[in-house]
Amino acid sequence: MNEPRRLAAVAVELPEGMTPPGTRGQVLHAALALFAEYGFHGTSIRDIARRVGITSASLYAHYPAKADILAALVLLGHQELHTRLQRALVTAGTSPGGQLAALVRAHVLAHADYPLLATVANSELHALTAEQAAPALALREQSRHLLLEVLRHGTATGAFTVADELLAAVAVGSIGLRVAAWFGPDQPYTREEVADAFAEFALRIVDATTARERQR
Question: Residue 17 pLDDT more than 90?
């Protein structure tokens, strides 16, 4: 596998239908590229305004402060992921194994499709105040609950063998996080191949194969 690529080389993309139109959306695109490359604290309002092609004063008419831009991006990233996880569960059926695989695939694909957004939403969250981060953290907790419920249901029905569901949730939830840092067209895998492989890894974490064998 190739070395992790520079984030600056990745296309700046935001979810369609969720990104505000006009200048507000342009500001988010510009800030996303800069935050991913230089970090929140290494980027100034002037840098963002210059990339959009507006003055700093004009930018402030759309976002009162730089932190408000970051908060919008962080929330957007968490909204996109949570929406994908919910959609995955709806179409996954009732099998705990199928539900777990669907959640992991959705998680991986979100990080593969929007690597810059995923990186900024995770690595720059600490720069926000508790109040600014609250909406995104609430969505993160809801997403965590979706996974925990699947793990608990799988354990209760014998589909999974899990000694500690909370730790299992941490392990499974961590699987896709680094995808944003290395996946790209230079890799010898498609996004679907990575998602399928990681889903299988997650099933091994919960010992799904052994659980199925014991039920025979």
Answer: no
How many residues in total does the chain contain? 216
pLDDT-derived band of residue 9, with 50, 70 and 90 as boundaries?
low
Superfamily of domain 67-215: Tetracycline Repressor, domain 2 (1.10.357.10)
| pTM reported for the whole predicted model | 0.89
Q: Which of 116, 215, 111 is nearest to 173 (CA)?
A: 111
Tokens of 99: 């539900």
Output the six-digit token pair for 105.
């695939």
> What does the domain layout of the chain look like in residue ranges?
67-215
- Helices 96-113 and 208-215 pack at an angle, to 10 degrees, of 160
pLDDT of residue 8: 54
Q: Does residue 137 contact residue 204 with C-beta atoms inside 8 Å?
A: no
